[in-house]
Specification:
single chain, about 450 residues, mainly alpha, 18 helices, about 0% strand
Length: about 450
């Protein structure tokens, strides 16, 4: 049974039901945030393991770029099927299966015996993981009111950036102690444990969770003028209106904007460690400590962007303004600051400007995922999957472009390409995306 919420939240302390609310939805948020952390630990760990893998298998930079991109290609292909399954069968079952598969495929990465095996393992991991974030997006849409969506989207994705910040140190420590294969075995086991915990705790509807009282349910669903909790629209296994979703300019604009964002962000998940080690001449130890600064600022950017979008919405009541006022300036400033990061000859200045650029870049994330809930309604998982598909396509191009220039010992030119993508994303947010217009009439 799926539930569709239609209202904003009530007071954070009491509700018109007269019942002090519980806080179960925030535990749900923490649990889902841990999933983001675990998934991104693997995405980041491959870049830490890359030098060792390259040496063991005798790979070129071009071959390693294909390994990086294999995940992104599969991730793009699996987005829509994963999002559709989440909308149709519910987040509880689908996310459990996804993370069980993820754990198995992570272990398969660790068991790789050559280039073909490694590419296949990365592809299978990417395809299985693809639905995780869209389905989680649907899971949160069922548990949070519209006025909280920017913040919760920023928080969950900040855990992904936290993974990027801490994984270099953790993965490097595991690598030095046990070898690169142990990284994937250890991280894979975390995915399995998460799947078990999620299955036990999560429920598709807040009203079905024994820890949720009427006060919290009123905050999630809203109350009518008489003070009663609003009724929820429900549907069992709804058919996805593909023609309406794919025929919407809003859908395609959001997809393109996220593709621009992902192109820029994927550098930090793939070539960034190699860039710092080979071009900026950091040691592996320094990379795990100081070099992680851009990923910490990205985490702060995601929390800031989502929270700021919610503040603007609560104060103005204008949904479109609350999303665009954050995303467009943030993308533009990210592109502006990435240029001096590329041009400077001093490593500390490069890290500083990359950190500032990363902060503004990730301010885009919370409002972007909030918009998929705003315009997608009960099909928010599918809309999020389409957006993330284009993001994955942008991500699959990024390491190839950087790899092309890296093999020619040019680490400056690809940053100008990135700045161009960010400018394009800025213009899309300013002139094409309308967060107040549901996708072809799909109610939120």
């Amino acid at each position: 049974m799926q539930a569709q919420h239609t209202a904003n939240s009530a007071s954070p302390h009491t509700t018109r039901t007269g019942t002090a609310p519980t806080h179960t939805r925030w535990w749900i948020l923490f649990l889902i945030s841990l999933m983001y952390l675990i998934c991104y630990m693997d995405r980041t760990s491959i870049s830490i393991a890359a030098p060792s893998i390259t040496t063991e298998f005798g790979l070129t930079k071009a071959q390693m770029a294909i390994v990086f991109s294999a995940f992104a290609w599969a991730y793009a292909l699996g987005q829509v099927p994963g999002g559709w399954l989440g909308d149709r069968f519910g987040p509880r079952t689908v996310l459990t299966i996804i993370m069980m598969w993820w754990a198995l495929m992570a272990a398969l990465n660790g068991a790789a015996q050559g280039l073909a095996w490694l590419i296949a393992a990365r592809f299978l991991l990417g395809f299985g993981e693809a639905g995780a974030f869209p389905v989680a997006n649907r899971g949160m849409q069922l548990w949070f009111a519209r006025s909280e969506r920017g913040r919760i989207s920023g928080v969950t994705h900040s855990f992904a950036r936290l993974a990027g910040a801490i994984t270099p140190f953790v993965a490097a420590s595991i690598l030095l102690a046990f070898g690169w294969r142990a990284i994937f075995y250890i991280f894979g086991s975390l995915g399995f444990l998460w799947a078990v915990g999620f299955r036990l705790f999560y429920r598709n509807r807040p009203e079905d969770h024994r820890w949720v009282n009427r006060g919290e349910l009123a905050q999630i669903c809203g109350v009518n003028p008489e003070g009663a909790i609003r009724q929820l629209e429900t549907a069992r296994r709804p058919a996805i209106p593909w023609a309406r979703i794919l025929g919407s300019r809003n859908t395609w604009s959001l997809m393109l904007a996220y593709g621009c964002f992902f192109y820029a962000s994927y550098f930090f998940l793939t070539w960034y460690p190699t860039y710092m080690l080979e071009y900026r001449h950091l040691t592996l130890k320094s990379l795990g400590i100081v070099g992680a600064l851009p990923l910490f600022t990205a985490m702060l950017g995601e929390i800031t962007g989502g929270a700021l979008a919610d503040v603007v919405y609560r104060r103005t009541g204008k949904l479109g303004l609350s999303r665009r006022a954050v995303t467009a300036p943030a993308m533009l400033l990210s592109g502006v600051f990435i240029i001096p990061a590329a041009l400077t000859g001093r490593v500390w200045i490069a890290i500083l400007f990359l950190s500032i650029s990363s902060f503004f870049l990730d301010m885009v994330v919370g409002p972007s995922w909030a918009v998929t809930m705003d315009i997608g309604g009960q099909f928010s998982g599918t809309v999020a999957a389409l957006m993330n598909t284009m993001g994955a396509l942008g991500g699959s191009i990024s390491p190839v472009v950087f790899g092309f220039f890296a093999t020619r010992h040019s680490w400056i030119a690809p940053f100008f390409v990135t700045a161009g993508f960010l400018l394009a994303g800025t213009l899309i947010w300013l002139f094409l995306i309308d967060p107040e217009k549901p996708v072809a009439g799909l109610a939120d």
